[in-house]
Amino acid sequence: TERIQTDRLRERVAEDLRRARERSTLLTDAVDDDDLVRQHSRLMSPLVWDLAHIGNQEELWLVRDVGGRDPVRHDIDDLYDAFQHPRADRPSLPLLNPAEARGYVREVRDKVLDVLERSPLEGRPLVERAFAFGMIVQHEQQHDETMLATHQLRKGAPVLHAEPPPPAAPLPAREVLVPGGPFTMGTSAEPWALDNERPAFGVDLAPYWIDTVPVSNGDYLAFIDAGGYDDPRWWSESGWAHRMKASLSAPRFWERDGDRWVRTRFGVVEPVPLDEPVVHVCFHEAAAYAKWAGKRLPTEAEWEKAARWDPASGRSRRYPWGDDDPGPQHANLGQRHLRPAPVGAYPAGESPLGVRQLIGDVWEWCDSDFLPYPGFRAFPYKEYSEVFFRGDYKMLRGGSFGTDAAAVRGTFRNWDHPIRRQIFAGFRCARDAERP
Ligand code: AVJ
Ligand code: FE
Fold this sequence. Notes:
With 436 residues, the chain is of the alpha+beta class. 32% of the residues lie in helices and 12% in strands. The protein is built from nine helices and twelve strands. The mean pLDDT is 96.
């Protein structure tokens, strides 16, 4: 049976690797070579850097480390080391050109599939060896989401296309009460959970209310129309300083067109859809909206309890809907649609308490800093999480329409600077239960 399990694991890894590469190929074949090497924003790498960086990480971890093979390219590690070169500097590096980058990732992948075929995944090393493959799948998918954000920043005619997401379904309530008490946060069991999601530990929360859906564009427009951007009462000190310095007045990609708002999404201009979750807002904008609405952002623990806690058993589930892997009925993931679904969609994905769209649609800003859980151990390298535990990053939870199912879970933790808006981030609100 161990043999059968190992074969199944190999098939699953091969399929996840294939799906990730299909997406990377789609994102990089959609534009011409000129567009691939150009920098579309100083916040982002040229797409061709992401592509070769994906191959380089795969080479480092799977060809050399797991496989024990000779380097495919021994001379480019430094070029594709994210810590050596800030994104803004990457276009001026002597990067592999598009044809070379494509050839490189193909050569690495051929070797990796051979390593996967031959490595003994049985026994004690199973978890660790398979983990390196899972980590590399997640790494490629994370860069695919980054490349999708680069596409959103790119000017020009649309090159990406997808079906519209499913419609909203009736929503019994706008917020629900999450009872106080203990729940288990994080995981020691999820095989592909990254180091920062580990280990599982108990937290005891006071009762709180949480919105059953993310804040919509229509909701957010009411904040804009009420002069929310011009009233320092709603903003933290650092939030107001940033709002002034960056002249914020609406979500990124929104523009005034006469008496209405339009926004550009992947090259298509459209009236801002009022029923969709707001996206491309920074942490400060989310926190200001929440305060104006008489609420606050949930903490990371509150978000996770709403997403995982099962009141019937007291157990923490893998996902809001249970322990099954995400399917198209549960959540808007994997760039299957090129936008968030309207608020109230995916009733099959709701939590036992009736909270919807926690997974997929938009990343949700939480009012917590990126810090290690008690018992954290850096694994397999300090540069994935540990070097970012500096207190200047805010948490994002749940994934977006651009996040693949392989790279998000109820325990998954993402983080960014509180001023960032190019990511697919929105938010939902919470409030203390003691309030009248
Ligand atoms: C976890 C999404 C913040 O993109 O910077 C990619 C993931 N780490 N390559 C990022 C990551 C190394 C990371 N985030
Ligand atoms: Fe990376």
